[in-house]
Design brief:
The chain is built from 12 helices and 2 strands. Strands 1-2 form a two-stranded antiparallel ribbon. β1 and β2 form a beta hairpin. α6 runs antiparallel to α7. The C terminus is likely disordered.
Amino acid sequence: MLTIGRLADYVGVTPRAIRLYHQRGLLPEPERTASGYRVYTAQDVIDLQRIKVLTDAGVPLARVRDLLHASQADVAAAVAEVDADLRRRIADLRRTRGALATLAQGEPFLPASVAALHAGLRAIGVSEATLLRERDNWVLIHVLYPELVDQWLGTQVAMLEDPEFRDLYLLTDEAFGWEPDDPRLEEIARRTVAWMVTQTPPDTEGWDTDPVAYQLVTTYRSDVSPAWDALMTRTRELALEAGYVEPGSGPG
């Protein structure tokens, strides 16, 4: 008597796989003994071997039924389709591997150009806490203003070439943990405005066309440091007194 276990051993599959093939209608249910045991035949061995050949070759179970008794031409056509699908999946897996490799390097959540900027900021002594906040800001910008990332990045890189801006950047970084009434904040605010009014006004086209996005970017984590909040407030006050209008604060 050819039992399910013996059939599985002959063909090199598991009894569980055979039961699955029965459920999917790929292998007909055999006759059963009075005790309820399945009794298989030589034809079942042949059919199961065909199923195994197809599945081992990567043919999806959904396609196996159509190919079990198909002509050679039909099998060849189906194999070509399966092969094309496998090629697409392999290409997807390669892209996934590349993405995983990127995650293991540098700043995985940033475009390469922004990651290079961060490396430069780290090199001049910017704290890791500020770099983390800046990184998240750039992620936000990349999502909300993808078409403006290069413009904003170019502006940032150009400003960092100015020794006064670099000094102000580092002072602001240092001020993160100060008290909001620290008198040194006034000096930083005045120096910041003095630097701002000497610069060419930034190209603000497109910055505030989406008020929600602009608000998200300009207020993100504005409350993480009371000192920074006080510094930004005072800088805006002095800038307005000096006639400097920040992007997004005009009419409308």
